[in-house]
Structure formats: C-alpha cells, structure tokens
C-alpha cells in the first residue's frame, strides 16, 4: 500500500524534474500536497507489523541495512520538506534549490526501497548489490508510470505530450528491468532457479507483461484511471513476487524460515483481532481522503 500510494507521489516528483512547463510543475505539487504524508502511515504499519510478528527478522534487517534505512528516511524527509520550503519565497535561486531536493528525494526514496527489498530477497551482506540496483531502478520506473497515470486523472485537460512520453518510457523501462531481475535471479542467485520457474512466479511475470502492454495503450489513449490501476496492480505483483520467491525463508542471510521466526500463536491471534478492528478504519480514512480530493486540480490553487 505504501509503495502504491506514496509511490505515485514519488513518480510525480520524478516527472516534476523531467518537465519544463511551469503550469505542469505547479499541478504536480498541488495534486500531491494533501496526500503524500498520509501514505506514510503504511510504512509505519510495515515496520510495526514486522517487529510484532517477526522480531528477529526486524532486528536483523534494520541492523544489517542500517545505513540503507537512514538513506531511505533521509530521502523521505527531503522529499517532504522541499515543497514546504519551495513555496516560502519567489526567489529563483531559492526555488531552484528546493525543486532540486524535491526531485532528488522523490527519486532516491523508491530507489533505496527497491535496493532494500532486493537485498532482503537475495540475502546480500552489503548495501550495494546488482539485484539491489536493478530493482531500485525498476521501482523508480514503475513509480513514474503510476505518477503519470495519476497526474492524468488530476489534470482537467489530460496529460501533455511530454508527460505521456515519459509515462510510456517508464513503463517500457520497468518491463525490461523486471525481465533482467528475473533472469539474474535464475542465473546468478543460488537456489532461485527452481523458484523462478514455479507456476505462480511465471503467472506473475505474465500478468506483469500483459498489464504493462495494457498500460501503454491506455495511457496513450487518455484512459488515465485504468492506466493508473494497471500500474498499481503491477506494483502489487512485484511485492507478491518477492514474497513468493522468499517463502518459506524470510531472512535469507541466516536461512530463518517464516515458521521459525514468527511469535507465538497466541500473540498472532491477538494481533489478528487488532488488525481486524483497525485496518478497516485505516482503509476508510484513505477512502475519505481520496474522495475529498478527487477530481482534477484547479489552475492557480497552489501547494
């Protein structure tokens, strides 16, 4: 959920750096202004759930990738504060500085999150790894594709040719990087070859390809809502792919399995009850939030 909702905002931040049109830039800032900070609730949920259910995994991941965690948080911080500072002055140099940090944070946040997911999957001992870089770039690409679809929904006149082109290119890049990732796992990561050819994995890859082709057609045709949903489903498919390839191991560095790492049955049942109560409330909050700010943004509204 975090990668889908805030990933959309990351993508619009990347597009902000790619376009030259001032009105498009202002539309991007206005579109994401009421939404970006709420999405980070899901990142907190991820950390809290991981700690509650798999405390040993939480400890291992957050200590093993300590610097990467701080890099993610740093990127999220500069992405968040930059639009706030950007609107404080009309000075060209000031706006150029905070525009640059906004673009940087929006690009680095998904890149570092992709590195984290890939390193977790392959059990990388260091921060920098080949799958980490490839998946990081893939997450930037799919976020940009999502951002283009969402921006089309928020722009009364639809996307201009430049943004549409970047949306299409980002989707093509994601499909290429996804194939490279799966190929690398099959060839270079021990124990992954059998998992990669599992029917569920092959089905996820096929669905990703079909949705990617559909996205290209939908975005070019101006059907922004289904294009946005197609890219979102691709992202959920990417997360599902990581989960399927991991299972039953959950911490490859030590070979710890899901069943060995989980807390007691009683604790799991208690957390399930809590989840059943609060998850619908969180989903309702987001339904209200996105309904309240639905529809295209108006020119001149500002951040």
Layout of strands and helices, then pairs:
Blueprint: H1 2-18, H2 22-32, H3 36-39, H4 41-53, H5 55-64, H6 66-86, H7 92-122, H8 130-154, H9 161-188, H10 193-196, H11 199-220, H12 224-246, E1 249-251, E2 256-257, H13 258-261, H14 265-292
Antiparallel strand pairs: 1-2
Helix pairs in contact: 1-2, 1-7, 1-8, 4-5, 6-7, 7-8, 8-9, 8-12, 9-11, 11-12
Keywords: Cell membrane, Membrane, Oxidoreductase, Transmembrane, Transmembrane helix
Pfam family, one: Cyt_bd_oxida_II
GO molecular function, one term: oxidoreductase activity, acting on diphenols and related substances as donors, oxygen as acceptor
Low-confidence stretches: none
| Number of continuous helical runs | 14
Q: Give the H and E element order.
A: HHHHHHHHHHHHEEHH
> Using DSSP, what is the number of strands?
2
State the end-to-end CA separation: 24 Å
Q: What is the overall pLDDT average?
A: 91
Residue share in helix: over 70%
| Strands in their spatial order, largest beta sheet | 1-2
Rg computed from alpha carbons, rounded to a whole number of angstroms = 20 Å
Which band does the percent of strand residues land in? under 5%
Domain count, please report it. Answer: 1
What composes the largest sheet? 2 strands, antiparallel
Structural class: mainly alpha
Task: Write down the overall geometry.
Answer: globular
